[in-house]
Amino acid sequence: MMHYQAGSGDSMSDSSLPADKHELRTDFLGRSVVLAPSRSARPHDFEPHVPAKKSDAASCYFCPRNEHTTPPEIERVGLDGAFRAPPARGSPQTSEWRARVFPNAYPAFSKTFSKAYGVHEVVVETPDHSKTLSQLDEAGFSRWLGLLARRLRAHEKDRKLKYTVIFKNEWAAAGASLEHTHTQLVGMGLVPATIKREQKLCKSSCPFCLLSVDDKFLKIIEDGPFLAMAPYAPRFNHEVWVVPRAHTASLVDLDETAITALGRTVRSILRAQDACLNYPAYNLIFHVAPLREKNFHFHIEICPRIGQWAGFEMGFDMQMNSVRPEETATLYKDWLRANP
Ligand SMILES: [Zn+2]
Ligand SMILES: [Zn+2]
Ligand SMILES: [Zn+2]
C-alpha cells in the first residue's frame, strides 16, 4: 500500500490521514468554516516588498494632473488637510489635493437609472500612484475615514437611498480594475440581506458588544476604543475584524477623535498584514448601519485573498481555511510589538 510522504513536522498516521488537527466551527453569524491547517499556508520568510504596478502615473485616471479624466469631482481634501467643495462647474480641477471623491465613470447605480437608482462613488485616498493604503500615515487614514463619513452623511439626505455599501479592493486578485489605491461607495434603495441579518441580531442583546469579553475572538489590538481581532470562524485565511468596543451604528456617529483612533487601529492591522503576508490582495469591507438608522454595531472586515473560493465556498456559504485564527493573532501581535 502506498503512503504519501508527510512534510517535515506533519506526521501522517498509518491510515494515510493527516493528523487530527482539523476543526469545524460556526460563529454567532451562522458562518461555518472547517479549519484544515497545512504547512503550505505559512507566510513567507522573505523581506516583503510592494508588488510593482503595471500602470504609470501619466496614464492613470486617478493621478494628479489627470483630474479632467474623471467625472466632475464631488469633494476633496486640500493640501492643508481641509475638506473642500468642488470647483464651480466648468472651471478646471487643480492637482492640489490629498484625497478626492468623484462619481464612478462606470456606475452600477445612478440617480438617472430608473431601475437601479443610487450613487456609485470613488474615493482616492492619496495622490501617490505607488502607495498602498497601508503606507499612508495616521493623518492619511483620518482623511480617508473622514471622507467616508461625510459621504454617508450626504447620502442620508436622500430618502430614496437606504444603504451605502463601502468596500475596498486592493490589487487585481481582490477585484481592483485600477491599480491606484481607492475605495468605492455604492448607495442604493435596498438594505443588503447580510446587514438585515446583523441588524436583527443587534435588536436583542448585541453579539458585537460581547466580543470584547469573548475569548474565542482573539484580540490583536485591545488598548483603545476599537478592537482588532482574529475572528473565531474566519471566512478567509488571516481575516481580521475591527470592531468598536461601544455599540456604535456607523462612521457618521464618530467624532474626530474617534475617527483618528479607528484610523490608527486599521492602519496597524494593514501594516502588519502587508509586512507579514507580503502585500496580499485583500478586500476591506465596512458593515455599517442602514442610512439614518441608529441600532447597529458597525464593524470592518479585512479579508486577504490568498486562496481562491471554489465549489464548497461558493455553493454553500461555508469555507475551508488552512490558517487558524490563533496563528494570525500571534503573527500580527508579534509583528506589531516589534514594529510599533
Ligand atoms: Zn495613479
Ligand atoms: Zn453592540
Ligand atoms: Zn458583518
Strand content range: 15-25%
Flag low-confidence runs.
1-13
Give the SSE string.
EEEEEEHEEHEEEHEEHEH
**Whole-angstrom Rg:** 21 Å
- How are the strands of the largest sheet arranged? 4-3-5-6-8-7-12-13-11-10-9
Class in CATH?
Alpha Beta
Question: What is the secondary structure topology, with strand pairs?
Answer:
Blueprint: E1 23-26, E2 32-35, E3 75-77, E4 83-84, E5 99-103, E6 118-124, H1 138-156, E7 163-170, E8 182-188, H2 193-203, E9 218-221, E10 226-230, E11 240-244, H3 256-277, E12 282-287, E13 299-304, H4 311-316, E14 318-321, H5 325-338
The structure holds zinc ion (ZN) (3 copies).
One zinc ion (ZN) is lined by residues 202, 206, 208-209, 247, 297.
Task: Tell me what you see in this structure.
This protein is an alpha+beta fold. The chain has one domain: HIT family, subunit A, CATH 3.30.428.10. It has 5 helices and 14 strands. The strands form 2 sheets. Strands 4-3-5-6-8-7-12-13-11-10-9 form an 11-stranded antiparallel beta sheet. Strand 1 and strand 2 form a beta hairpin. The radius of gyration is 21 Å and the shape is globular. The N terminus is likely disordered. The structure holds zinc ion (3 copies). One zinc ion binds next to loops.
Nutshell version of this structure?
With 340 residues, this protein is an alpha+beta fold. 21% of the residues lie in helices and 21% in strands. It has one domain (32-338): HIT-like (HIT family, subunit A, 2-Layer Sandwich), CATH 3.30.428.
